Amino acid sequence: MWDVGTGYPSQGTESILQVAQQIKTREDRQFIYVEPCIRCQVKYKKETHAGYLPETVFQGFEL
After folding, report:
1. Which of 30, 41, 50, 53 has its Cβ near the most Cβ atoms within 10 Å?
2. Nearest to 17 by CA among 3, 31, 5
3. Which residues of 17-46 are buried (b: 16+ CB within 10 A; e: fewer)?
């Protein structure tokens, strides 16, 4: 799980939360856990040796 630094439209937050409520498996105080059926594209400069993707930019959802 990673955070996407930029590029995610603020008006899209409510839409993705509505979808997440329909496919959630559980929820706690910080996260909504969902079935892994939504994919998105991100752009990043390089992968670190530890496998992290720094400076990610959200590009869009894959349908």
Report:
1. 53
2. 31
3. eeebeeeeeeeeeeeeebeeeeeeebeeee
Q: What does the pLDDT look like over 49-59, one tens digit per residue?
A: 888 887 788 88
Distance CA 20, CA 31 (A): 11
Residues 6+ apart with CB under 8 A from 7: 42, 43, 57, 58, 59
User: Taking a C-beta distance cutoff of 8 angstroms, is the pair 21, 29 a contact?
Assistant: no
Contact indicator for 29, 15 with CB cutoff of 8 Å: no
Q: Dump pLDDT digits (tens) for 20-43.
A: 888 999 999 998 898 888 888 888
| CA atoms of 54 and 60, how far apart (whole Å) | 18
